[in-house]
Amino acid sequence: MEVMTHSSTFLLPSNHHSSSVTYALVVLNRPLPRFTPLLWNHAQVRVCADGGANRVFDEMPLLFPSDDALDVRQRYKPDIIKGDMDSVRTEVLDFYTNLGTRVVDESHDQDTTDLHKCVAYIRDLTPNSDKSNLCILVAGALGGRFDHEAGNMNVLYRFSTMRLILLSDDCLIYLLPSTHLHEIYIQSSVEGPHCGLIPIGMPSGSTTTTGLQWDLNNTEMRFGDVDVA
Q1: pTM, whole model, 2 decimals?
Q2: CB contact set of 48 (below 8 Å; sequence gap of 6+)
Q3: pLDDT given for residue 66 in this prediction
Q4: What is the domain extent for residue 61?
């Protein structure tokens, strides 16, 4: 079985960046994680999901308190603002469009979430030859309304052939496809000490881990059972 590796080098300065990985960043309408500038600098394309543009406009200058706010907003300009446009403020749209940001209004589509729209856009933007190296980082995906969180996790399953990572200040979540063995390389300076494996979507017939404080050995897991690692 093919091995899939996972490493959060995007949480480290750019000189640690692996040239084999192409990152895209999606910013949702939740408070920005403190490490958002690192994600921004690693990304090749930055997409704000609707009200996520408000967050970049309002909160990115707060991460650089000694810098001029206008300068910060000009430095951290999203490439695309996409969604149903029910949250982004008019003055924010005007500011970024004047800087060259592309706005994609999908208010006609009320059957998918803004995150779904953004991920589909990045997928369609990426040539097939590059998709295996693509990793989509989603900032502000956790916290707030539970139905929004659940919708964001559902996107992991809707795009299960792609690498997506949901991020907040204290968590990162990704899907481990059953088609692969998985090696997770911890950046101990910025990650840990906790790791959870949750069999959402389908049971895990046999899970074996190495490197955890309490490893699993050929363990069956299913959502709803008492023992969930």
Answers
A1: 0.87
A2: 26, 27, 55, 56, 78, 80, 81, 82, 88
A3: 97
A4: 13-181
